[in-house]
Design goal:
- It holds the Pfam family LRR_6.
- By secondary structure, this protein is of the alpha/beta class.
- α3 packs parallel to α4 and α4 packs parallel to α5.
- It is elongated, with a radius of gyration of 53 Å.
Length: 393
């Protein structure tokens, strides 16, 4: 380094070379003092660039170590949170199981009969919980009974005071149920979690035809509550069996949320009835929804007309096949009758021939007997004549 050149303070700490150690002695690096020339200035500039690279590498390593420490700390915190969440879920699950077991023991009257009918697949196609008060534990018992049920096609749980937890339980049932076609949950108090759960259920369910979530307060103006409605809207793009969706009076507001619903309904090819009244959607969005629903109705009508024509063609084809089979059968019966008549005639002729033969044989036998008798009489007569001639001599 030149005597006139001055090393920047921020780089001086990176200019220290490692001391040389020989036994018990430590030798510091030699410090060069050179005159100021073009060569020494060039060497100085090169040294500055090397020190800047060292500084950058050191800073990068420091940042990397800090990031690794922060990531490790974050992983530890996440593991702790996951463990705490797992413990909380296990405790919550154990609590729910205890409540369900206690409620199962206390179940009586109409609710017990309903559970038994659902578990044994002997319920009516249309089931309603009218007159039965349901708490969260009973709702979970009802959902568990419907998991493998195929006899219940329509379930009405309107105005039961359900909350988010109850909605999540019913949505979990829909993920595995293969028989329910209509679910009424109008007038409850379902929220964002229930809306998200129904979105997950609609991605997996392929039997539900009608879902009524009217007046359930699924969304609020602003905040994060609209997340559930967005998840529900995204699920409509995947589901291909739902035809009726009632989402009226759910405080759905905002252009962004409305656009999610509109795009989902436009992407769906199965929805033919959609109710979004009582929400704050623009006129243009409602027109687009109505246009998409009308398109699906026309498409479904065309499919039904094609199915009717196909059934009619199949019926005509079946009718012609039956008519041909009847003609073939009639021909076969006619041939069989002709052959049978022919056989009967041959049998009758044979029987007549046998009868005539027997009669002829009988006549010949009688004639033979008459001849024999006549011959015997003649022989007897000849013997008598010979006796008379002998006496005359």
């Amino acid at each position: 380094m030149t005597a006139a050149a001055v090393m920047p303070n921020e780089l001086s700490q990176y200019d220290e070379e490692e001391p040389e150690i020989r036994g018990n002695l430590t030798f510091k690096p030699v410090m060069e003092v050179l005159p100021k020339t073009k060569r020494t200035e060039r060497l100085h500039d090169e040294k500055i660039r090397q020190l800047q690279r060292k500084k950058k590498e050191a800073e990068d390593q420091k940042k990397l170590k800090e990031a690794e420490v922060a990531a490790q700390r974050q992983r530890v915190n996440e593991q702790k949170k996951a463990q705490q969440e797992r413990i909380r879920r296990e405790a919550e699950l154990a609590r729910k199981k205890r409540e369900e077991e206690e409620m199962r023991k206390k179940a009586e009257g109409g609710f017990e009969q309903l559970l038994d009918a659902l578990r044994t697949n002997s319920s009516r196609p249309d089931v309603t919980a009218c007159g039965i008060e349901l708490n969260p534990a009973q709702v979970r018992l009802l959902a568990n009974s419907l998991t493998d049920n195929k006899s219940c096609l329509s379930l009405n749980l309107s105005r039961k005071g359900f909350g988010d937890e109850d909605g999540v339980a019913m949505a979990g049932m829909l993920e595995v149920n293969k028989g329910l076609q209509k679910l009424e949950l109008e007038g409850n108090n379902l929220g964002m979690k229930a809306a998200e759960a129904f979105g997950d259920a609609l991605r997996k369910n392929n039997t539900l035809r009608s879902l009524n979530l009217e007046s359930n307060n699924l969304a609020h103006p602003g905040g994060t509550a609209v997340k559930g409605v967005i998840e529900l809207a995204n699920a409509l793009k995947v589901n291909s069996t739902l035809r009726v969706l009632m989402l009226g009076k759910n405080a759905i507001t905002g252009t962004e949320v409305g656009e999610y619903l509109v795009s989902a309904i436009e992407a769906s090819e199965s929805l033919t009835v959609v109710d979004l009244s009582g929400n704050d959607l623009s006129v243009e969005q409602l027109r687009r929804i109505d246009k998409a629903v009308q398109r699906n109705r026309e498409r479904l009508s065309a499919i039904r007309r094609a199915e009717r024509r196909e059934r009619f063609d199949l019926y005509n084809e079946e009718f012609k096949c039956r008519q041909y089979d009847m003609q073939v059968e009639a021909t076969r019966l006619e041939i069989e009758a002709h052959e049978e008549r022919k056989l009967n005639r041959m049998k009758a002729r044979f029987e007549k021939w046998v009868e005539d033969t027997h009669e002829t044989e009988e006549q010949e036998r009688i004639a033979f007997e008459d001849l024999m008798s006549e011959a015997a009489d003649r022989a007897e007569g000849r013997k008598g004549k010979k006796g008379k001639k002998g006496k005359k001599k």
